[in-house]
């Protein structure tokens, strides 16, 4: 891995690990880039590194733009898809996957998933971005599996802790501003 790629990976990994909720667009862009890179490498492995990198950048930038302009639609759609998929999987396990029952439970699972992700957006984003950031950083160390797992757990815990601290600080600042506005309108 070249030095410039290593530096970019470390900076992006740390930013997503520690600031994923605050920089939602960056988290989506980095996650899109990483997924696009993996997909392009697997599908176009015989292409040059430049083609693979270009495709990965395109996916990442597209994801970041969608995150900025269509945030809640994207979140609700992702929640619906996750809930519907989980509902379909559970129905197969319980052998309820026939006819109209399947569709009712599929759609119900989707609606519940969309509502949960929209309602729990901040908390889900904190967890996912911490895991994504740690997943980017851990492969950079050449350790045996057990210490790498421990590093992953520590990084996720630190990322979640920092993001919760920042989230709580933001919420406290909002409450202070609301109180100041209320007090200024009362006088």
Q: What's the helix and strand layout?
A:
Layout (H helix, E strand, L loop, with lengths): L2 H17 L4 H20 L5 H21 L1 H23 L5 H21 L1 H17 L7 H42 L1
Helix pairs in contact: 1-2, 1-6, 2-3, 4-5, 6-7
Description of the molecule:
The protein is built from 7 helices and no strands. It has one domain. The longest helix has 42 residues. Helix 1 crosses helix 2 and helix 1 runs antiparallel to helix 6. It is globular and about 65 Å long. The chain is mainly alpha-helical.
Number of domains: 1
Distance between the termini: 62 Å
Helix content: over 70%
Chain oligomer state: single chain
Task: Write down how many β-strands occur, each being a DSSP E stretch of 2 or more residues.
Answer: 0
**Number of distinct helices:** 7
As residue ranges, the low-confidence spans are: none
- Mean of the pLDDT scores? 82
- What's the gyration radius in Å? 20 Å
Taking the sheet with the most strands, its summary is: none
Based on Cα principal axes, name the global outline: globular
- Listing every helix as H and every strand as E from the N terminus to the C terminus, the arrangement reads HHHHHHH
Give me the secondary-structure category: mainly alpha
């Amino acid at each position: 891995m070249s030095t410039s790629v290593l530096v970019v990976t470390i900076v992006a990994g740390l930013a997503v690990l520690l600031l994923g909720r605050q920089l939602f667009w960056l988290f989506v862009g980095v996650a899109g880039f990483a997924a696009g890179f993996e997909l392009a490498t697997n599908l176009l492995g015989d292409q040059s590194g430049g083609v693979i990198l270009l495709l990965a950048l395109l996916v990442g930038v597209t994801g970041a733009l969608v995150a900025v302009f269509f945030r809640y639609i994207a979140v609700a759609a992702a929640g619906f898809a996750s809930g519907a998929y989980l509902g379909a999987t559970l129905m197969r396990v319980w052998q309820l996957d026939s006819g109209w029952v399947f569709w009712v439970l599929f759609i119900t699972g989707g609606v519940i998933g969309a509502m949960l992700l929209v309602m729990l957006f901040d908390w889900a984003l904190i967890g996912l971005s911490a895991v994504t950031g740690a997943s980017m950083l851990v492969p950079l160390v050449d350790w045996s599996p057990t210490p790498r797992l421990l590093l992953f757990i520590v990084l996720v815990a630190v990322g979640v802790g920092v993001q919760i601290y920042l989230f709580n600080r933001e919420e406290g600042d909002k409450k202070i501003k609301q109180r100041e506005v209320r007090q200024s309108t009362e006088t």
